[in-house]
């Protein structure tokens, strides 16, 4: 029985970017069905109390139904946010 794997991309860059390339490379070694989902293009509500769009509801359903979720996001973005939070450059 094949497992369902969702690879969630968090890079704001469109087209060819390192996150997408890493996810595609990783997926070649899976013996399971997989789906790439670009989270950056989703329109998130300003508050979790606001209703979600149909597209976001669909993605949430796919994440819940998956046997595994792989999150792929550029580390540089996280480093800059951590630096900003610490008052560093």
Outline the structure in words.
The chain is an alpha/beta fold. The protein has helices at residues 18-27, 54-65, 75-86; strands spanning 4-9, 33-38, 68-72. It has one domain. The protein has three helices and three strands. Helix 1 links the parallel strand 1 (4-9) and strand 2. The longest helix is centred in the last third of the chain and has 12 residues, at 54-65. 10% of the residues are buried. The mean pLDDT is 76.
Give a quick summary of the entry.
The protein is α/β, with parallel strands linked by helices and 89 residues long.
Search tags:
three-stranded parallel β-sheet; 89 residues; 3 strands; alpha/beta; single chain
Could you outline the blueprint of secondary structure elements for this entry?
Layout: E1 4-9, H1 18-27, E2 33-38, H2 54-65, E3 68-72, H3 75-86
Parallel strand pairs: 1-2, 1-3
